Backbone:
């Protein structure tokens, strides 16, 4: 099938098909005309048809679209790829022309590039035999990458102990420590070879061979989708699970017209590169934009970098589980028809969404009444504020996040702008041990830490006193999210990093927008702790409204839910109270229609400042009745 398609693309008669659909004129070593693809106005002709490695390709310098005769016919005639291939084959086979009279001799001009070395398959047989004999190399493939020898063998994978003069300056210590041989094979010829060390992450390429070819290119089939990865081992695990897959040489390589042409021979290109939020993601996103009607962008689970890690970590090396996961992720990807545009019906089916109240990844509060107020999901931003300062917002958030980490396996990143690490540690130890925080010993801190380790709690504190503006703090938070794979983030508090900016309100709006984008991008539940406006004499001690939040309105418009804490002023003066506020804490859901849960929008908690503990009050008391505390 592949050889037949290659010969069809190279047939000179296919040029006649181009000229039947667009007016072309000679322009140096190519034909040029106005772009017929309909994606832009082409007042200056920018659409070229040219010969590259024996294949007649097109490229528009205006819109950037590129491809071969199959993609051209499919796009212009608005027909599926398999029908376009059939039409081209029928046209070529039914034409009496041989094509010589329609191909200008200038197309025959030699390309001013040194020829690349090509080897017969027999040349790498010794590497394949070496892998067959070397159990250490086969064990490395299986244990480190989850790849069976059977799959490696199908891809002509080999092994060599010493790569000799190919070694780089920084890798001379592992020159003879064993290398996996990864050849690119096309039509029974080896066009490129890469070597991967089994001692550490290090790669070398065979000199003189092509560096811009796709690994496992012969897997492409016009009737099936192909998964495009950024690593040979990612391609291997996908092939092992029954998918067709190819790999780019690396994430930074330039995708040539020939590569694009080969990829477009498939029924669909599933862009399955790395989730590294950098070069790899940028590469795949660009391809998605360039090929919107023929590609879709697959995202691996948030905690996994790529296909290989998803197979080993998420699916525990279970091939069938991995296959189901890839099918599920592909359905989700296909529901996005182009960047930012979703198919409603496809997305509803693909996302397998359960009822929101029982969503497995919703944030769970330790207090039942509060937990029922709002359903906080990955990607949501939550605002938390109180009527006045010193009402316990930091402790309330600590109670909630420690519970989420200890009981529900959340990974917490809590960034403290004002509270230093020692004070925060003291509050945590007091809460965990139930001891007065003013009288904790070093042994108490050690005991609290032991409890956290025994429960395998993943809780991280952020604090950098030298950062007091928006950009460095949010940069640090985003880097930490990626490093520790946080699922819940707390910023305590946002006004601290905005008050030193030239325009504080604008800084709040910009920070809020970035936080909202960050939450969606990394699928985290993001809690912003805010400050209230300074109260005047008339409003002092009264409950907050949404409009009482300090600064930019964007802080609340970007929030899926807004929790407000209120404690009444204590009027007793004899004896003087230890706390100017009542321990009874009213928790209100001020906003959050899109996240509203089944419960009431108001609840009450009892605050014990010495233990940094909020306890649930079982029910609202009758008039004159003392409140009852929960367990």
Residues:
């Amino acid at each position: 099938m592949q050889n037949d398609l290659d010969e069809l693309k190279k047939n000179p008669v296919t040029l006649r098909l181009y000229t039947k659909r667009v007016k072309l004129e000679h322009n140096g070593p190519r034909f040029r005309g106005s772009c017929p693809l309909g994606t832009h106005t082409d007042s200056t002709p920018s659409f070229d048809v040219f010969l590259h490695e024996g294949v007649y390709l097109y490229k528009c310098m205006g819109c950037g679209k590129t491809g071969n005769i199959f993609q051209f016919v499919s796009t212009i005639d608005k027909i599926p790829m398999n029908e376009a291939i059939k039409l081209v084959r029928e046209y070529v086979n039914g034409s009496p022309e041989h094509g010589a009279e329609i191909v200008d001799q200038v197309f025959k001009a030699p390309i001013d590039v040194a020829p690349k070395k090509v080897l017969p398959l027999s040349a790498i047989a010794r590497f394949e035999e070496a892998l067959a004999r070397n159990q250490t190399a086969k064990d490395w493939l299986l244990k480190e990458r989850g790849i069976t020898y059977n799959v490696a063998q199908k891809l002509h994978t080999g092994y060599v102990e010493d790569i000799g003069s190919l070694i780089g300056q920084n890798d001379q210590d592992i020159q003879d420590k064993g290398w996996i041989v990864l050849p690119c094979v096309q039509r029974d010829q080896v066009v490129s070879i890469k070597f991967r060390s089994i001692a550490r992450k290090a790669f070398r390429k065979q000199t003189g061979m092509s560096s811009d070819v796709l690994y496992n290119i012969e897997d492409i089939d016009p009737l099936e989708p192909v998964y495009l990865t950024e690593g040979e081992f990612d391609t291997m695990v996908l092939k092992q699970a029954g998918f067709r897959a190819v790999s780019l040489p690396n994430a930074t390589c330039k995708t040539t017209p020939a590569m694009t042409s080969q990829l477009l021979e498939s029924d669909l290109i599933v862009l399955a590169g790395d989730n590294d939020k950098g070069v790899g993601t940028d590469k795949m996103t660009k391809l998605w934009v360039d090929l919107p009607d023929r590609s879709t962008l697959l995202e691996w689970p948030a905690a996994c970098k790529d296909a290989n890690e998803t197979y080993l970590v998420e699916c525990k090396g279970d091939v069938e589980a991995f296959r189901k996961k890839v099918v599920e992720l592909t359905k989700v990807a296909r529901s996005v028809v182009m960047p930012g545009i979703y198919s409603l019906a496809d997305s509803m089916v693909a996302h397998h969404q359960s009822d929101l109240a029982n969503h497995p990844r919703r944030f769970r509060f330790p207090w039942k009444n509060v937990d029922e107020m709002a359903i906080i999901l990955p990607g949501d931003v939550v605002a938390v504020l109180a009527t006045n300062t010193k009402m316990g917002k930091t402790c309330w958030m600590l109670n909630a996040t420690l519970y989420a980490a200890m009981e529900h396996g959340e990974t917490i990143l809590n960034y403290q702008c004002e509270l230093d690490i020692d004070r925060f540690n003291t509050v945590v130890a007091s809460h965990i041990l139930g001891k007065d925080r003013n009288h904790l010993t070093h042994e108490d801190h050690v005991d609290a830490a032991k409890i956290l380790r025994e429960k395998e709690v993943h809780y991280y504190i952020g604090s950098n006193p030298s950062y007091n503006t928006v950009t460095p703090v949010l940069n640090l938070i985003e880097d930490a999210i990626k490093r520790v794979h946080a699922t819940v983030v707390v910023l305590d508090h946002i006004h601290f990093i905005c008050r030193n900016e030239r325009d504080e309100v604008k800084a709040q709006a910009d920070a809020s927008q970035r936080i909202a984008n960050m939450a969606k991008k990394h699928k985290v539940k993001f809690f912003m702790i805010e400050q209230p406006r300074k109260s005047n004499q008339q409003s002092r001690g009264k409950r907050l409204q949404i409009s009482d939040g300090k600064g930019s309105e964007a802080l609340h418009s970007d929030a899926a839910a807004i929790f407000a804490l209120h404690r009444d002023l204590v009027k007793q003066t004899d004896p003087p109270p230890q706390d100017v506020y009542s321990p009874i804490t009213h928790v209100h859901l001020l906003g959050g229609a899109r996240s509203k849960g089944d419960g009431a929008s108001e609840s009450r908690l009892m605050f014990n400042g010495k233990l940094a503990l909020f306890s649930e009050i079982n029910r609202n008391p009758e008039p004159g009745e003392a409140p009852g505390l929960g367990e």
Q: What stands out?
A: Residues 96-113, 535-539, 620-631 have pLDDT under 50 and may be disordered.
